[in-house]
Amino acid sequence: MIRAGIIGATGYAGAELVRLLMAHKETEIVWYGSRSYIDQKYADIYRNMFEIVEGRCLDDNLEELAQQADVIFTATPQGYLASVLKERILEQVKIVDLSADFRIRDVAVYEKWYGITHASPQYIGEAVYGLCEVNRDQVRKARLVANPGCYTTCSILTAYPLVKAGLIDPDTLIIDAKSGTSGAGRGAKTANLFCEVNENIKAYGVAGHRHTPEIEEQLGYAAGREITVSFTPHLVPMNRGILVTAYASLIRKADGTLPGMAQIRAAYDACYQAETFVRVLPEGICPETRWVEGSNYVDVNVVIDERTGRAVMMGALDNLVKGAAGQAVQNMNLLFGLPETEGLLMVPVFP
């Protein structure tokens, strides 16, 4: 059995990790870390775990946990893992970090966008960006996996095939993303109160959201050069889900015509035909968050707008599963040589 410890087990992503790992046949949770609820029964905090989880919440002592676990998930705010990570910890245990501490290669970019000083930049170079569909082979050999963000996972997987195939100009890429309120975390914030969110939709982080450089960096690797994108997130009054609609100018052929739908869909098939968790929908069917809720699936599709010469790319996922905990478990499976789908083949919930 893989012994797993979770730091931040009482946040939304941490709780989703608990739910998924309880159904994972090869894993045992040995540490429910939560600074806010030390020594309280986990099932008293999340009643859905009554008579399922008997453990109590422990502190966030990473060094002690490293002696008891084979893998540690850190579902913590930015800056935590970087502030406590040491070589002796990485020598004992594998880490899947759900924060942004090791996602961005350029420490100056991280510090600019997140507004904090990176405490352990020496580990940025070895951290593997844990988007399994793109970096599967690198993840298998890693000690430290940087689990991608929810907006970034949906945005990257939605546009990646056309960027990689050179069928769109990535510098014209505009990403309109909408998320349920669980994406903001469990902490009490006035902007997330029921009366603030209900019957409302709003943009936020306009021209400055901190997931922007992560999207640019990863799609830049696909493009083979640095790129600049426009990314605007929106908050919508639902619990779970992310919907991305992205627009980019198609690169015309030598004769001035646009790529055809057969060529466009071939690019998606080349990337995702063998992927379990990315579902390319039939032509004319738009992704919806309801059809991926509670699952590790991402639904994507694309339409050619002949009038404007643009591709309209769409994607939907559950921000707590494929956008956080499910992807973390997928990474763990790769790290330990298990089937990548182990513990993750749950059918989306509807209604």
How would you describe this structure to a colleague?
This protein has helices at 12-22, 42-45, 62-66, 80-84, 87-92, 107-114, 132-140, 150-164, 194-197, 212-223, 261-272, 321-335; strands spanning 2-7, 27-33, 57-58, 71-74, 94-97, 128-129, 144-146, 174-179, 202-203, 230-235, 242-249, 278-280, 298-305, 310-317. Helix 8 packs parallel to helix 10 (212-223) and helix 8 (150-164) crosses helix 11. It has 2 domains: 2-126, NAD(P)-binding Rossmann-like Domain (Rossmann fold), CATH 3.40.50.720; 151-319, Dihydrodipicolinate Reductase, domain 2. The chain has 351 residues and is α/β, with parallel strands linked by helices. The model has no long low-confidence stretch (mean pLDDT 97). A 7-stranded parallel β-sheet has the order 3-2-1-4-5-7-6. Helices cover 30% and strands 20% of the residues. The chain contains 12 helices and 14 strands. The radius of gyration is 20 Å and the shape is globular.
Which labels suit this protein?
351 residues, alpha/beta, Rossmann fold, Dihydrodipicolinate Reductase, domain 2, 7-stranded parallel β-sheet, 7-stranded mixed β-sheet, 12 helices, globular
Strand count, sense and barrel status of the largest sheet are:
7 strands, parallel
Instruction: Give the % helix.
Output: 25-40%
Helix/strand/pairing category: alpha/beta
| Number of β-strand runs | 14
**What is the radius of gyration computed over CA atoms, rounded to a whole number of angstroms?**
20 Å
Could you name the CATH topology of the largest domain? Dihydrodipicolinate Reductase, domain 2
Distance separating the two termini: 34 Å
Mean pLDDT: 97
Can you say what the CATH homologous superfamily of the largest domain is? Dihydrodipicolinate Reductase, domain 2
Q: Please give the CATH class of the largest domain.
A: Alpha Beta
The count of domains is 2
Beta-strand content bin: 15-25%
